[in-house]
């Protein structure tokens, strides 16, 4: 019997699968990678050896307004470690710099003060300027051009008014942008809902290159990179983390070159070969990525790539924050089934994209091929069933239900952390 740890909230669940029924366990090599230095030292080394750019301290000289785009509460970016090192580097070149952290909420809800303290620590929250971006407030935005796809680039004024715009973040596989990090700090991070909607349209989401681990020819990535360059994102600091959310590698420098170096490394660690099975058990990597159903769709796509047609996906996600988006939720509550959701979304022209339709489109795609059972004892079960999924309070309960659907002889693949792998 294999007892496999599945991240869930701030702890884990155990999947007890008989060896005779287990096709395989798919894990990123990042979880077993031994870094060459400590976390802070890795960030410092990256800043001292930037890729395709001068050092950040040199870029900061004579700049009066510096803006650091930082990730929000939904991302496990170790900002407590990264931010102090970045601030020291900036102030080494410009002790009197006016520095503002701009929190890249994208289409998410606003980050709370408590979440900022959890992310940065009390000292930075008490002593540094922090502004939380709101994609739905037109008064804080300015239009700076057009995306390659034709949409307007409408962005937070703070980013445009900065003499030096930089960002921090992390790189992991992303289910339609290819990888997170780099250019994604700008789009969707600090742009208007208008720009997010243009970029996340149904034609792009369905594109064959808008998939996990793919950048080349990915129309979503192309738009994102163009927006970041148009906004003059001058320098990035991105890290790669392991299952314990610890930094194992850091990259700094040019928004495109440093990001490509980071995605190359992350891709080598994350790529695994599919082990097709009747039942696939996965997670959204635990806290903070499994706080809502919206984010949990990401983990489902890893399972989708290794689940036989008609098979069952079990996704373990606390979802203590509920559905994660009222518009996302309504797509399913107002439709008869997943096919009705998909038909409605695919009939929408790109210029008429509706909030959160991209996440609904991908969930509908998964549901059209598989039964999805969500394991959660922290989410209202009705939210889950309203979204056309089945629900179980425990993993053993979900396994029993899955075998009832797929048969007692069903075989399993387990992907403990669905957001950390690229399944091919």
From TrEMBL:
Which is a Pfam family this sequence falls into? Answer: LarA_C
Query: GO: which molecular function terms?
Result: lactate racemase activity
Locate the LarA-like N-terminal domain: which residues? 8-213
List residues of the Lactate racemase C-terminal domain: 272-423
Indicate the segments annotated as coiled coil, or none if absent: none
The name this protein carries in UniProt is: Nickel-dependent lactate racemase
Q: Which organism is it from?
A: Dendrosporobacter quercicolus
